[in-house]
Structures
1.
Amino acid sequence: MANIRALPPELINQIAAGEVIERPSSVVKELVENSLDAGATRIEVDIEAGGARLIRVRDDGGGIALDDLPLAVASHATSKIGSFDDLEHVASMGFRGEALASVSSVSRFALVSRTAGQEAAFRIEVDGGRLQAARPAQHPPGTSVEVRDLFYNVPARKKFMRAERTEFAHIDDLLKSLSLARSSVEFRLSHNGKPVRVWKAARDEQAVLQRVAEVLGAEFPQRSLRVEHAAAGLQLSGWVGLPTASRAQADAQYFYVNGRLVRDRIVAHAVRQAYADVLFHGRHAAFVLYLELDPAGVDVNVHPAKHEVRFREQRLVHDFLFRTLHEALAQTRAGQVASPAH
Ligand code: ADP
Ligand code: MG
């Protein structure tokens, strides 16, 4: 047996990357979430070769000060939490301070940023974990991150990347879910230089519903009911599809907890139960639902990719969801769907 050794930092980051960075869309998720946390109102995502060649995310958010640039790509360095107490109340999408360190350890990475107070922008580059000194650059206030040749130094991972089309489809799906999460933010997505999607900032409910229709289909607004209910510190809003909007696959289910798309057992069970007597066996409901609650009531530090959450009061959340949705759907059972959303 060899002696015990401490691992070099690049290797530690590459191991961490294995947990969160599964494919190009995982990189896009981390970068866009950073832009959202930075208060961006406009986020542009440019992809080349399904993300294998290039992923670029550009935002007009708060930017990163020159002195902080090396920290942005250091592991366990974050501006979002500073204590265990903060972790219990975390309202930002990120908090682990690991995404940029991970991504930059498995790609050719560059970040250009400028804060509102700075005259000039600065650029740093990281190549396979090695950080180069910051240089002045051109950039409006905000941040651009460029990730080239993802997994170029991790052949085992690279092998798992699928066809360009498949990887881009994952990115497109992710952008759809993010566009529904933050309808006040403008999103643009391009692939190989061609614009694929433009979601302008939605200023009113009609515009939000247009986004919903783009993601769930043009008929969804007519085949859904608006839900809005608050009780016991929980607030649920959104649209639940009528049985006529149901699908053979569970591919139109968007459930957000404090703005974060989650796949949760408790939520899934409550929704399934609420739909139980209006849907045929084998059919899946379509919905876009937003649950808001005190961040202290939900633990997001369950999985590195944060798809899962743990509610402190699971029973309460379950019953609130079930009752709210069951009641909304009761109208369809009585055959008196008077006012579908439009
Ligand atoms: P986390 O998001 O968990 O803090 P990241 O590795 O994703 O960790 O980012 C590290 C830090 O870099 C963030 O805490 C933030 O201060 C800064 N940062 C990253 N991306 C951006 C961005 N687009 N705009 C402004 N600051 C950013
Ligand atoms: Mg982050």
Note: Confidence is low (pLDDT under 50) at residues 336-342.
2.
Amino acid sequence: TASPEVQKAIEDVFTKLQGASDCTSLLKKHLTKDVVAKNKSKKTRLGATLLDVIQSGGENLDSGVGIYAPDAESYTLFSDLFNPVIEEYHNGFKATDTQPGMDLGEKNIGELADLDPEGKFIVSTRIRCGRSLQGYPFNPCLSETNYKMMETRMKEIFNTITDPELKGTYYPLTGMNDETKNKLIADHFLFKEGDRFLKAANANRYWPTGRGIFHNEKKTFLVWVNEEDHLRIISMQNGGNVGEVLKRLITGLNLVAAKAPFARHPRLGWLTFCPTNLGTTVRASVHIKLPKISAKDDFKKICSDMKLQIRGIHGEHSESKEGIYDISNKQRLGLTEYQAVRQMYDGVKKLIELEKAAS
Ligand code: ADP
Ligand code: CIR
């Protein structure tokens, strides 16, 4: 069972959250006295405790969610906390609900006409999904050797990609010069470094070991290795052609999936480190200019009513610049991959109509 020190630290997080009046995280809301009492002594087989789950939200009081799963077992062992957080984040997905089978929408791509054929609003479109390699836990439980082995395996897999559009090169973070790295980050291709939410979750250990990025020449198909998730598989391009972006994602994902078995949970779908990314793990987004409607008071509500999430220009926890927003589906669990993309597609279509009609 968890040591007295760990149990005390869990109590301290609880007390800190209760005292933090401007904290609005789902962790604060759902980490009740009861949940603490029932779970503070538990340990997963890999040794993870409730402290590992809650320490990011305990340190970062501005978290939206505040919890991570150190290993797959945590989702069941600490379900008293995960279930209500998951239900609230994913639009009412209950403890008794099950993620539908995968449907990437291969047959529906024809329905996804370019959202912005005149190029007036949408700067770029991106769809990503997360995957975990079977047999490895998540970041806080990975050893340095694990990271190296996973990277080696992925390099072998990337080398098997011969599709002329998708083939590319793997660039490890280890040894990458700052100029190259910072340019990749600024251009929205690479994950940022030193994310404080991940750091507090013990997810940045041995950095940059085992971390890196694969991409094709055009940087339209990319795979992040060992950042928040083992893999983030990404398709992106300029403009609003969601269908092209989805089609490329499906092709690339299938190539990687053919070589690497991924961890899937019977109820929660594709397993990832953050409970917001379960199920489809799909975040489909546009970078979009909506100067008129975004200046209005009801912009946030319009977006949340359409189940859209607003992020800033450099992703989560960043600010919007020059009136450009990152708009995506919020829900990733409890619907199919195609429906997740569709949530973004239909919502953004509506936002563009509203922008055109606004004065
Ligand atoms: P994730 O989408 O993987 O959850 P972030 O929100 O941190 O993580 O975004 C990662 C990067 O992808 C950021 O640089 C962000 O600006 C970029 N990005 C997201 N959506 C788009 C888009 N539609 N076009 C271009 N870049 C994008
Ligand atoms: C937070 O709670 O703000 C961070 N741990 C990130 C959570 C992921 N957020 C999201 O909306 N996908």
Note: The first helix runs from residue 4 to 19.
